[in-house]
UniProtKB/TrEMBL annotation:
Protein name as catalogued: Reverse transcriptase domain-containing protein
InterPro entries: DNA/RNA_pol_sf (IPR043502), RT_dom (IPR000477), RVT-Znf (IPR026960)
PANTHER family linked: REVERSE TRANSCRIPTASE ZINC-BINDING DOMAIN-CONTAINING PROTEIN-RELATED-RELATED, RNA-DIRECTED DNA POLYMERASE
Annotated ranges, domain Reverse transcriptase: 1-147
C-alpha cells in the first residue's frame, strides 16, 4: 500500500484492523467474551473485497510494466490493445505469446507479486491454455512451468452430445424417432451454447456430422452415405426439409460481421454497429420484428433465406399419418429410398429383382405401384374409400394425391393419410422380404394400414370409415 502511495496513517489504520481482529459469538442473543483471531482477516469480512481490490491494483500495475520489456511478446490477439491480463472477482486470466520466454516473464511477474503480497495462485485450480503451436513447443512450455494444461469446454459439449445418443436405445428407433431426438435434444442443447458462445467452426462441423450419422444410421460410427443431404434437412418443411436448425447460422447470430470499423471505436460499439448492419442486410427491422420486438426466430429465417417450395409440401405438412410413415413418404418423394436399382449403382448388391413380385427389376417407380403386390394393396384401399380408379404410376398417383390435399372433406383427408401409411407399409414389407424372407398377403398389409389410419383419424373420419 505504501508503494501505491497511500498515506502512512491510512496504512496504519488498515493494518491494525487486520491484525487486531477478534470474534464474538451470539449465544442466546448475548455476545460472548471476544476471542482474538490468529489468522487475521477472514473471507466474508466487509473490508476484505476492498483490500483485495487494492492488492489486485498492485498486480495490474506490475503486469502493465511488462509492456515496456522488449523480451515479452503479447498474445497476437491482445497486441493491439496491449492486454496482458483480465480479472473478474478473484479469477485472473493472463495472456502472452506461446513462447517459453514470454510465458516465463509473465509468471515471474506474478511470482514477484506473490512475494510482495503473500497471495499465491492455487496451482491445482490453475490451467494453461495453448494454441497454434506444435506439440514439441507445447511440451517444452508445459515442462518448464508445471501448470496443468486446460482444455476449452467445447470438447465436453461434443462428448455430451455423443454420450446422449449412445445411452438412448437409439438403434431401435425409427427414422422419425431419431429425427425427433436430433431436433429437440441435440440441437436445443447446441443452440443454447451457440447463443452464449461463438463456437469454433470445427466444433459445429463435428456436432453436425455426428447428428447426421446418428439420424441415418442410429449409431455413431461413420458408415453409410446420407440418403438426403444435411443442407436439405435444414430447409423449412415447405421447401422439402425437416426444419432442423442450421447451427452455423445460429452461431452467426452471435457473431459480428467482418466489417472494418475504425480502430479507435470501442468493442461494444463495433459489435452493435455490426449487428445493425446484419439486420439491414436481411431487409431491416420490419422483417425481424414480431409485435414490435426483435425475434431471433425471424432473424434466423431471414438468414436461412428464401427457398423454392416443393410441390408435394402439403403431403408432408398437412398429414396426420404417423411420423415414421411420413419420414418414409418424404424419402420416397425425394426419390431417395435405397431400392435395388440404386444399390446396384452404388455397387452394394448385384441382385436386381423386386423382392415382392420377383418378376421385375426393383426401382421406386416399380415399387409404387407398378408392382402387382403393391398395386393390389393400393387398389384395395382406393376401393375402400369408394374411388373407382385403379392404381397407376407413382407420378400420376402423386398428382391425384396433391389434388386431394387441396380439398376438404374426410374422404380426401383420409386418402392423403392412407397414401403415407401405404408407402410405409409396402416399404416395411419389402424390407421384411429382403432381410427376413417373410412374406405376408397384401390383404394383411391392408389391415395394418387401416388400423394405423384408424388410430390417427378424427371422430368424423371414423364415422366415414364405418359407413
Ligand atoms: Zn415387384
Amino acid at each position: 500500500m505504501i508503494e501505491l502511495g497511500f498515506p502512512d496513517r491510512f496504512v496504519t489504520w488498515v493494518f491494525s484492523s487486520i491484525t487486531t481482529v477478534s470474534y464474538s459469538i451470539l449465544i442466546n442473543g448475548k455476545p460472548t467474551k471476544p476471542s482474538s483471531a490468529k489468522k487475521g482477516l477472514r473471507q466474508g469480512d466487509p473490508m476484505s473485497p476492498f483490500l483485495f481490490a487494492i492488492g489486485m491494483e498492485y498486480l495490474t500495475r506490475h503486469l502493465q510494466q511488462l509492456q515496456t520489456q522488449t523480451a515479452f511478446n503479447f498474445h497476437p490477439k491482445c497486441k493491439k490493445l496491449a492486454i496482458t491480463h483480465l480479472m473478474f472477482a478473484d479469477d485472473l486470466l493472463m495472456f502472452s505469446r506461446a513462447d517459453i520466454q514470454s510465458v516465463q516473464i509473465l509468471l515471474s511477474a506474478f511470482h514477484q507479486f506473490s512475494v510482495a503480497s503473500g497471495l499465491e495462485a492455487n496451482l491445482d485450480k490453475s490451467n494453461i491454455y495453448l494454441g497454434g503451436i506444435s506439440s514439441t513447443e507445447k511440451a517444452a512450455i508445459l515442462s518448464s512451468i508445471h501448470i496443468p494444461e486446460g482444455s476449452f469446454p467445447f470438447r465436453p459439449l461434443i462428448e455430451k452430445v455423443v454420450a446422449r445418443a449412445k445411452t438412448w436405445t437409439a438403434r431401435n428407433l425409427t427414422y422419425a424417432g431419431r429425427l425427433q431426438l436430433v431436433q429437440t435434444i441435440l440441437l436445443s442443447m447446441q443452440s443454447f451454447w451457440c447463443q452464449i458462445f461463438i463456437l469454433p467452426k470445427k466444433v459445429i462441423k463435428e456436432i453436425q456430422n455426428f447428428c447426421r450419422i446418428f439420424l441415418w444410421t442410429g449409431h455413431t460410427d461413420p458408415l453409410r452415405k446420407s440418403l438426403v443431404a444435411w443442407f436439405n434437412l435444414c430447409l423449412p418443411k415447405a421447401a422439402g426439409g425437416w426444419n432442423i436448425k442450421e447451427m452455423s447460422l445460429w452461431n452467426k447470430l452471435g457473431r459480428s460481421l467482418d466489417t472494418k470499423w475504425p480502430a479507435a471505436m470501442s468493442w461494444p460499439l463495433k459489435k452493435i454497429l455490426s449487428s445493425v448492419q446484419m439486420i439491414e442486410d436481411v431487409g431491416g427491422w420490419v422483417t425481424v420484428c414480431r409485435n414490435g420486438k426483435f425475434s431471433i426466430k425471424k432473424m434466423y429465417q431471414c438468414l436461412l433465406g428464401d427457398h423454392v417450395k416443393v410441390p408435394w409440401r402439403r403431403i408432408v405438412c398437412n398429414n396426420k399419418a404417423f411420423p415414421k410413415s411420413l419420414f418414409i413418404t418424404w424419402l420416397a418423394l425425394w426419390n431417395r429410398l435405397p431400392t435395388r436399382d440404386r444399390l446396384v449403382a452404388w455397387k452394394i448388391t448385384t441382385v436386381e429383382d423386386c423382392p415382392l413380385c420377383t418378376t421385375k427389376k426393383e426401382s421406386a417407380a416399380h415399387l409404387f405401384f407398378e408392382c402387382d403386390y403393391s398395386a393390389a394393396v393400393w387398389n384395395t384401399i382406393l376401393h375402400s374409400l369408394k374411388f373407382t380408379r385403379k392404381a397407376s404410376s407413382f407420378d400420376q398417383e402423386l398428382a391425384l394425391i396433391l389434388k386431394a390435399t387441396k380439398r376438404t372433406g374426410d374422404r380426401y383427408k383420409l386418402l392423403v393419410m392412407y397414401f403415407a401409411e401405404c408407402l410405409y407399409s409396402i416399404w416395411l414389407q419389402r424390407n421384411e422380404m429382403v432381410f427376413n424372407h417373410k412374406c405376408r398377403r397384401p390383404a394383411d398389409i391392408v389391415l395394418d394400414i387401416m388400423f394405423r389410419v384408424a388410430c390417427r383419424a378424427t371422430a368424423s373420419q371414423h364415422m366415414f370409415l364405418l359407413n
